[in-house]
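Study this fold:
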Amino acid sequence: MMPELIGNGLADRLAGLRYLNLKANALTEFPRVLCDMQRLEILDLSRNKITHFPDSLGALASTLKVFSIAKNRITLIPEYFGDMNQLEVFKLDGNPIQWPPAEVIASVSDGVPTHLKEFLKLNVTPIHLQSPSVSLTIVEQSPPHPQLLPAPSFSLSQIIETHLQTPSFTKNTSISIK
């Protein structure tokens, strides 16, 4: 790719693009710049090494009609695909998908995602398959009088584990501990 196309402003320069083929480019991450493309209707990211989707597809969620992410390393299909009413063809084959279940993924073998979209609208990804973002900031300071501080009755890992098991988690849950 030409150097002047790399970096900030790429989406602006390609704003009118309707078809993009990034097949077999050894991509390891979903290119976030694509999420800003407001007219993209056909996207081919097949035969790369992409492991997961971004938290949101941004503008792509309302424009994509044909999407191939076949033969990557995707393990989870996010719930937001259930709301992509205009998505007519969704190629997923050749990925080690853990969620949704195999029988739901098999229904997309012809590329038509109708059953998959219905399933994603009705089912929340199990918590053990979600990858919540946890950011920790630990500041270590020596207390002026350590003997005056009570011993902690719980650990940070116990707090995180308790929160991850809380049944109030719903779609797009993330944890941020600061």
Observations:
- Residues 35 and 58 are 5 Å apart (CA to CA).
- The first helix runs from residue 10 to 13.
- Residues 1-5, 132-141, 158-178 have pLDDT under 50 and may be disordered.
